[in-house]
Amino acid sequence: MTQPRTPWPRLHLFELLGQDWYPTALRDHSTNYLATISQRMGLFDAVAPLLLRGLEAGNTNEVLDLGSGGGGPLPRLRELLARKQGRQVRLVQSDLFPNAQARARARAAGAEYLEQPVDALQVPAGLRGMRTLFNALHEFRPDAARALLADAQAQGVPIGVFEVVERSPRGVLSALFIPLLVLLFTPLIRPLTLPRLLLTYVVPVFPLTIFWDGLVSTLRAHRIEELRHMTQSLAREGYTWEVGEARMPGKPPVTYVLGLPVTAA
């Protein structure tokens, strides 16, 4: 698929979390860190109204999260919807590399985290509900990202894709602060283990590996004009696409793609 030209060409460099050989212990720490920082800082709070629109369009109270990693922001967003909108949401989380610690946390919070791997490009037909991805679309090349969106449309289910990473000078500058954030937020991650502390503060494996993946994420991120081009190519009757930025004071802007089945509304 031909992409519109941009001043910052997309670079699909390798991301450690996307490698099959990457050790589970390192992967789980990285995804647990990402979940902790997104929940503690409320990075995705601005998308709660978009989630509500998707649930209403799909006539469902179930969210199927893809690429959940360490849990992501959905537990916090579920609480926001319950407190501010009175909407009770059933949350099902999934990942190509399921995180056992996140599964235990989800169970304790009354959510579900699937034990079997789920490929976001091949979602089993039995898994319904509104699909969501948080900071995950950049992991897919443009053709694969389009296929991911097209499958939700073909299945007639709503989908919300949300990213705080951005391919811009601001995005690269923000990535430079990641090692410091890892040092600050690691004590908040549970369980807090001795190996985690040693590989953060003595031998800085985690600050460096998380920084690398964060920097690569900014260089991989799909820009708004590219996402609009992608969804315009999917346009058909009975399903609408919306691309934009969700904003909230004191929070970074969230780039989003929202796909809504019209016939189910």
- Helical residue percent? 40-55%
Gyration radius (Cα, Å) is 18 Å
Helix and strand succession? Answer: HHEHEHEEHEHHHHHEE
- Principal-axes geometry comes out as globular
Tally the beta strands: 7
The poorly predicted ranges are: none
CATH structural architecture: 3-Layer(aba) Sandwich
First and last CA, distance = 31 Å
Class per helix and strand makeup = alpha/beta
* Count of domain modules: 1
Can you walk through the features of this model?
- It is a single chain.
- With 265 residues, this protein is α/β, with parallel strands linked by helices.
- The protein has a single domain (16-261), classed as Rossmann fold (3-Layer(aba) Sandwich).
- 42% of the residues lie in helices and 14% in strands.
- The protein has ten helices and seven strands.
- A seven-stranded mixed β-sheet has the order 3-2-1-4-5-7-6, sandwiched between helices.
- Strand 4, helix 5 (142-155) and strand 5 (159-163) form a beta-alpha-beta unit.
- Helix 7 crosses helix 9.
- The two termini are 31 Å apart.
